[in-house]
UniProtKB/TrEMBL annotation:
Pfam families: Methyltrans_RNA (PF04452), PUA_4 (PF20260). GO terms for molecular function: rRNA (uridine-N3-)-methyltransferase activity. Residues 76-229 form the Ribosomal RNA small subunit methyltransferase E methyltransferase domain. Its EC number is 2.1.1.193. This is 16S rRNA (uracil(1498)-N(3))-methyltransferase.
Length: 236
């Protein structure tokens, strides 16, 4: 698949010329060494895309011609992942992995045992990971949410699953329907969910499930959960 870059104003007229001149263009020229004749993809990050070819390469920009253009429809199931904030670089790693897993929305969560902090750079991380994983939709990264806000999100979801290492119910036993429009997955911190958080989520309507015997790091658990639930719901 062609290399993907994002632009604010996406050219969609086939045969039309466009000046590609943002930071991504600079990266394409200076790092990837793209030359005249190189073909790649441009996207607005909201589903629209254009395949283009470079017709002129300058010092910090390039002129491209649109070869083809289209729109990628969203999947039937919208996936939101609530991620308890890990410490340091693991928070960035969690955002990258969730983006690569194809989630639509990432909600950093200040859980009782969280040791990490939110960052304005999370949105940049999601954007860069979207380019790497060739997805035309950049996931939304919200502001850090409280437990009370997560409970409200559970109430408006078709299916909400909180993963906890001490749960007795298997994930496969907690997914009984494939008709899920809004899916919410909750990933706890390294220290696990507290009893109070489990009770609050359960009371709000979430199911508590065991992911498996191995205990994953918080930053890695999200991609495993999204993969498993997507397969069970036949999203994949």
């Amino acid at each position: 698949m062609f290399t993907l870059f994002f632009v604010d104003e996406l050219p969609t007229t086939v045969g039309g010329l466009y000046e590609f001149a943002n930071e991504d263009a600079n990266h394409a020229i200076r790092v990837l060494r793209m030359q005249t004749g190189a073909e790649f993809m441009l996207s607005d990050g909201q589903g629209s895309w254009s395949q283009v070819v470079a017709t002129e390469v300058k010092k910090k920009s390039m002129q491209v011609r649109v070869i083809d253009s289209g729109f990628q429809q969203p999947l039937a199931t919208t996936v939101t992942v609530v991620q308890a904030l890990p410490k340091g670089d693991r928070a960035k790693e969690a955002i990258e992995l969730l983006t690569e897993a194809g989630v639509d929305r990432i909600v950093p969560w200040a859980s009782a045992r969280s040791i990490g902090k939110g960052s304005e750079k999370f949105a940049i991380t999601a954007r860069e990971a979207s380019k790497q994983s060739r997805r035309f939709r950049i996931p939304e990264v919200t502001e850090t949410a409280s437990t009370a806000q997560i409970c409200e999100a559970i109430k408006v979801s078709d299916l909400a699953i909180a993963f906890h290492e001490s749960a007795t119910a298997k994930l496969s036993d907690q997914v009984s329907s494939h008709n899920v429009e809004h899916l919410l997955i909750i990933i706890g911190p390294e220290g696990g969910l507290t009893d109070e958080e489990i009770t609050a989520f359960s009371d709000a309507g979430a199911k508590v499930a065991l992911m498996g015997r191995p205990i994953l790091r918080s930053a890695h658990a999200g991609i495993a959960a999204v993969s498993a639930v997507s397969a069970l719901l036949k999203v994949w």
